[in-house]
Amino acid sequence: MTFSAKILRWYDANKRNLPWRSTVNPYNIWLSEIMLQQTRVAQGTPYYLKFVENFPTVKHLAAASEEEILKLWQGLGYYSRARNLHATAKIVTNQFDGQFPDTYKELLKLKGVGDYTASAIASISFNLPEPVVDGNVYRVLSRYFGVSLPINSTEGIKYFKTLAREVMNVKNIRDYNQGIMEFGAIQCVPSSPDCTICPLSASCVALRDDKVKELPVKIKKTKVRDRFFNYLVLLGGNDHSLLKQRTGKGIWQNLYEFPLIESEAAITNVDVQTELEQYGILDQKFEFYKFNEEVIVHKLSHQHLKTHFWIVTLEGDVPNGVSFQEIDKFPVPVLVADFIKTFKF
C-alpha cells in the first residue's frame, strides 16, 4: 500500500468532526484556514463558529467595520490575520462579486493568502491537485522519509513542496490533504508520538533510525526581546477612562489600549507623573498606584512584554474619555482584556 493510501485509510477511520468539514464552500475553508494559522483547532473553532454566525458570507464580512472584526477576533492573536481577512473579503466582494477565484495562482494573489492557504482552498474547495505543506505536513514527511533539511530554510521549503507533490493522492486530493494534516495533528505529534499504533511505522525512516525526536529540523528562532509596558489607567470622577488606538506597523495595529509608557526598564513614580503631564490633568487632584506589584509577562512569538498597570484616580473628569460601561466594547489586546476583566470597572 502506498504512503498516500495509508494516509487516506487512516483519515477515514480517525478524522475529527470539525465544523468546516461539512462544506467545500471556499469562504468557509478560507476562514478556517486563516484562523488556524498559528492557532490550535480547539482554540480556533469557537472563533470560526462566531464569525460564521455574524458573517455568514464573504459579503457580510466585507460590509463589517474593522472594529467589529477586531473585537470578534480578540484573544486569537496575530491580528494582522484579521485585517488581511477584511481586506480579502472586500476584494472578493468588489472584484469577484463574492465568488472566490477557483485557481491556485489567483487565490495566491489575495491578501494574507500564501502557498499553504491557496493550496488548501484549491484542493478542498475546487478539488485541484495542489499539495498542502503546513507544520503538520512538514513533520510527517520529514520523519517518514528521514529528511533532515531545515523546514524553514529556502532549500527545505522547496524540497518539501516537491516531495509533497510527488507523494500526494491526485484522485482524492481533497481528503488526502486534510488527511495528512490531520495525521500530523493527532498521530505524528511533535512530542512523544505513539509510534506503536502508527500505520506508517513499518516504513518510517525516523523510527527505524531512532530520529523521531530529532525531526523535523528547524533553524533556531530569533532571540526573544524584552519590552517594558506600563499602562496608565485613568479613572475620572465622571466614571470615564481613556483608551488610545495603536497605529503604525508594530504589534496590535488598530487595537485600543490604555495610555502606554514603554521603557527600557522598570519605571518609578516620577516617570509616571512626568507622563501624566501630557494628558492635561495636573491642574486637578489625583492619586496613583501600581495595580500589580508582580510584573505580568505577556509572551509573544519574539518578544516578552513585562507589564505593569498603574491606576490613576482623578478628582475631575478625564478629557476625551470613554465611559466605564463602554470600555469592554472596544477591540483590545488580550493582555488589556484580561486586566479589564480583573479590574471590573
Automatic annotation (TrEMBL):
<feature type="domain" description="HhH-GPD">
    <location>
        <begin position="35"/>
        <end position="186"/>
    </location>
</feature>
<comment type="similarity">
    <text>Belongs to the Nth/MutY family.</text>
</comment>
<dbReference type="GO" id="GO:0032357">
    <property type="term" value="F:oxidized purine DNA binding"/>
</dbReference>
<dbReference type="InterPro" id="IPR003265">
    <property type="entry name" value="HhH-GPD_domain"/>
</dbReference>
<dbReference type="InterPro" id="IPR000445">
    <property type="entry name" value="HhH_motif"/>
</dbReference>
<dbReference type="GO" id="GO:0035485">
    <property type="term" value="F:adenine/guanine mispair binding"/>
</dbReference>
<dbReference type="InterPro" id="IPR029119">
    <property type="entry name" value="MutY_C"/>
</dbReference>
<dbReference type="Pfam" id="PF00730">
    <property type="entry name" value="HhH-GPD"/>
</dbReference>
<keyword id="KW-0227">DNA damage</keyword>
<dbReference type="InterPro" id="IPR005760">
    <property type="entry name" value="A/G_AdeGlyc_MutY"/>
</dbReference>
<keyword id="KW-0234">DNA repair</keyword>
<keyword id="KW-0326">Glycosidase</keyword>
<dbReference type="GO" id="GO:0006298">
    <property type="term" value="P:mismatch repair"/>
</dbReference>
<keyword id="KW-0411">Iron-sulfur</keyword>
<dbReference type="InterPro" id="IPR015797">
    <property type="entry name" value="NUDIX_hydrolase-like_dom_sf"/>
</dbReference>
<dbReference type="GO" id="GO:0034039">
    <property type="term" value="F:8-oxo-7,8-dihydroguanine DNA N-glycosylase activity"/>
</dbReference>
<dbReference type="Pfam" id="PF00633">
    <property type="entry name" value="HHH"/>
</dbReference>
<dbReference type="GO" id="GO:0006284">
    <property type="term" value="P:base-excision repair"/>
</dbReference>
<comment type="function">
    <text>Adenine glycosylase active on G-A mispairs. MutY also corrects error-prone DNA synthesis past GO lesions which are due to the oxidatively damaged form of guanine: 7,8-dihydro-8-oxoguanine (8-oxo-dGTP).</text>
</comment>
<dbReference type="GO" id="GO:0051539">
    <property type="term" value="F:4 iron, 4 sulfur cluster binding"/>
</dbReference>
<dbReference type="InterPro" id="IPR023170">
    <property type="entry name" value="HhH_base_excis_C"/>
</dbReference>
<keyword id="KW-0004">4Fe-4S</keyword>
<keyword id="KW-0378">Hydrolase</keyword>
<keyword id="KW-0479">Metal-binding</keyword>
<dbReference type="GO" id="GO:0000701">
    <property type="term" value="F:purine-specific mismatch base pair DNA N-glycosylase activity"/>
</dbReference>
<dbReference type="GO" id="GO:0046872">
    <property type="term" value="F:metal ion binding"/>
</dbReference>
<keyword id="KW-0408">Iron</keyword>
<protein>
    <recommendedName>
        <fullName>Adenine DNA glycosylase</fullName>
        <ecNumber>3.2.2.31</ecNumber>
    </recommendedName>
</protein>
<dbReference type="Pfam" id="PF14815">
    <property type="entry name" value="NUDIX_4"/>
</dbReference>
<dbReference type="InterPro" id="IPR044298">
    <property type="entry name" value="MIG/MutY"/>
</dbReference>
<dbReference type="InterPro" id="IPR011257">
    <property type="entry name" value="DNA_glycosylase"/>
</dbReference>
